[in-house]
Amino acid sequence: MTSVSSYPLIAPSLLAADPLCLGEEIKAVEAAGADLLHIDIMDGHYVPNLTFGPQHVKAMKSVTNLRLDIHLMVSSPAVVTPWFIDAGADWVSFHPETEAHPYRLLQYIQSRGVRAGVVLNPGSPWQIVEPLLPVLDFVLLMSVNPGFGGQQFIPRVVSKVAPLLALKPDLIIEIDGGVNSENAPDLIKKGVHVLVAGSSIFGQKERIALKSDRTETYRAAINAIRGQ
User: Fold this and answer.
1) Which of 35, 40, 43, 137 is catalytic?
2) pLDDT tens string 96-148
3) Could you tell me the CA-to-CA distances from 194 to 85, 208, 218 in Å, in that order?
């Protein structure tokens, strides 16, 4: 388990990485000081996009020592969760409205030695988390509408952080969507533990095109988000 003193954790989102160079991208952000790899799994049904399957996750696991943070944007999370845990997931979260028995699925995830979380969309009330607290390690707050990267941050989502921490002070709060060096300081101040960043890390194409070192480019972006 990560100690509180280790926060904030920076989790680059591979949705924004170069799909033709994923291995290189993963190695670059690991060398640059990332703490987790955030991997969005989309089924084209719950959200209008398709991304990675378990075979991709297994391949990612083989080239990194970073923990894999799997966000399931799928209509049947109970079906696919074992696939991704077998592939190497270290954290798994799903949208509770997609699962008839979210408590049971969270129990299963924890029984596999994996951190278990639920995801709240921008329009989802924080109160739906309360019945799940005994089997919940973290909550992922979506600060954009799920499905596509590069969207603008929705500020009102941050208001969910305080009541969630009041319910369970040791609950890990993760936030994903439009996170950058400008809004990160306030998110950290409000108590967010894990910052998922896609475009603000991987969207440095101009610098890389100019033959700038990929690792150093990503290190600068990660440190800026971390406030260093």
Assistant:
1) 40
2) 999 999 999 999 999 999 999 999 999 999 999 999 999 999 999 999 887 66
3) 20, 26, 17
Domains in the chain with CATH codes: 4-226 (3.20.20.70)
Q: Which residues contact 120 (CB under 8 A, 6 or more apart)?
A: 126, 128, 129, 139, 140, 141, 142, 160
Residue from 18, 86, 176, 213 carrying the catalytic annotation: 176
Separation CA 87–CA 77 (nearest Å): 15
The 8-class DSSP code of residue 160 comes to: G
Q: Residue 171 has which token pair? A: 């609950």
| 176 noted as active-site residue | yes
Give the span between the Cα atoms of 109 and 90, in whole angstroms.
10
Residue 37 one-letter amino acid: L
C-alpha distances out from residue 189 to 103, 168, 192, 216, Å = 30, 18, 7, 26
Active site residue 69: no
